[in-house]
Amino acid sequence: MNLSTMMKQPSAFLPVAMSLAALTLVLGHVAMFGGAREADEGTAAHLFQLLMVAQLPIIAFFAIKWLPQNPRPALAILALHVAAAIAALTPVFLLGL
């Protein structure tokens, strides 16, 4: 199985989509309300946390299922998962949210 075929598997594209949704949520919140730190976490912060944590079992399932069968494309997709998660976390750390 090649990379593009493997990427069509839900366990491959869902974590990337969840990271992009989390990034969109953070950027939208900053655009609407600014980057000021709030006294209490709002709905956006809770959704961000849920999106990021919910990826972990999906990524673990992907790694357990696909790494033994096709290690090279699986590692590339796992690297994409990590890159997408870092992209979602970067604005949170840079802005101190």
Structure in words:
The chain is an all-alpha fold. Helix content is 80%, strand content 0%. The chain is built from 4 helices and no strands. The chain has helices spanning 3-7, 10-33, 43-66, 71-95. Helix 3 (43-66) packs antiparallel against helix 4. The longest helix is centred in the C-terminal third of the chain and has 25 residues, at 71-95. The protein is elongated. The relative contact order is 0.21.
Strand and helix map with partners:
Blueprint: H1 3-7, H2 10-33, H3 43-66, H4 71-95
Task: From the structure above, extract its key features.
mainly alpha; 80% helix; 0% strand
Q: What is the number of E strands? A: 0
Shape, principal axes of CA atoms: elongated
Report the radius of gyration as a whole number of Å.
15 Å
What is the count of DSSP helices, taking H or I runs of 4+ residues?
4
Largest sheet, in brief, is: none
Mean pLDDT: 90
Element-level helix/strand string: HHHH
In short:
The chain has helices spanning 3-7, 10-33, 43-66, 71-95. It is mostly helical and 97 residues long. The longest helix is centred in the last third of the chain and has 25 residues, at 71-95.
